[in-house]
Amino acid sequence: MSEARSTRVRSYGSQTARPAGTRDSVETERTTDARSVPEETCPECGGRTRMLNAETVCDDCGLVVEADRIDYGPEWRSFADDATAPERTGAPLTRSRHDRGLSTEIGRSTRIKGRKRRRLARMRTQHNRARISSKRDRNKVYAYTEIRRLTGALELPDSIRDMACALFDSAQSERLLRGRSIEGFACACVYVACRTADVPRTVAEVCAEAKATVNEHEAAFDAMNRELGLPLGPTPPAAYLPRFASALDCDPLVERRARELADRAVEEGIANGRNPAGVAAGCLYTAGREFDADITQGDVADLADVTTVTVRRTYVDLTDEDMNS
Predict the structure, then answer these.
(1) Which of 53, 64, 89, 187 has CA atoms 20 to 30 A from the CA of 161?
(2) What is the largest CA-CA distance in the chain?
(3) What is the structure's pLDDT at 8?
(4) What's the rounded Cα separation, in Å, for the pair 240 and 199?
(5) Which of 203, 274, 287, 206 is nearest to 241 (CA)?
(6) C-alpha–C-alpha distance, residues 144 and 50, integer Å
(7) pLDDT score recorded for residue 109
(8) Which residues fall within 8 angstroms of residue 282, CB to CB, at 6 or more apart?
(9) What is the pLDDT of residue 21?
């Protein structure tokens, strides 16, 4: 078995001999640095690299692997007393605007009076008209406004808003809007974005806040699912439990037991062909009965937008399985 060959380090300074204890201190310092900084290999010799100020240098061959570190933060710099000045760079880019937020606006001021104020009003009107150059952009502005309003009403995060806007852009590129409602596509894009991001919302919940009807939503959803091939699978009942449990202020033990019941309902086929929100409501009611929680069938049924019969049917199936086992 061959002995490990020791690596010799060449100093960048003088070549004079060091005292006996200096080498041990240098090796100790290198070991400490290697533990604090993740090891990387040199692309030339395969040696170990380390950070020296803003440079990444190879210990074996001295190659400078990286010279500058990239700052991915916002370019907010101010020469005033404040450390940052966001007004220098304007608003960040966003997918929820038809021009990605790059266009400018003519502001309003109460100090301007008379003829100059009327002239600025005319300039503002012409500027807003020039921002929308085609019917395609006009439809996109209207749809994005509806998506922003809908995500705000449903209290959804900005990531779902941007995903819905990108989905509408894809549907418009495939010319799926012809003969269909723009409000329906905005509603369907928000619904698909919620299911893709595992933030489940039922069709009734989305359509209740949208300007589109259920039929317009279904027509837009079927067109996108057929032409775009949406990667959507069935929503599991357990995905609705955190929101239902939070709305009913349930104990964590009740929510955990309801999740176990929901998983068992999927495994044993109880949830097949049923509304997943109704199955989740039935599992939550069953778990509440086991822990003597103050949860009624009417409370979970109203929360899931189903009837009490749906909740009772899931409860009976789950309790029958327990009795048979």
Answers:
(1) 89
(2) 95
(3) 41
(4) 8
(5) 287
(6) 48
(7) 77
(8) 300, 310, 311, 312, 313, 314, 315, 318
(9) 45
Q: Is the pTM of this model over 0.70?
A: no
Beta strands across the sheet bearing 64-66: 49-52, 55-58, 64-66
The residue assigned the tokens 């779902």 is 160
DSSP 264-303: HHHHTTTTTTS-HHHHHHHHHHHHHHHTT-S--HHHHHHH
Q: Give the per-residue pLDDT at 71.
A: 65
Dihedrals phi, psi of 307, to nearest 5 degrees:
-90, 165
pLDDT (tens digit, 9 = 90+) per residue, 298-323? 989 988 888 999 899 999 988 886 65
CA–CA distance, 1 with 4 (Å, rounded to integer): 9
| Cα 165 from chain centre | 13
Find the angle CA(278)-CA(256)-CA(253) to the nearest 5 degrees. 115
Distance CA 228, CA 172 (A): 11
Nearest residue to 98 via CA among 33, 4, 172: 172
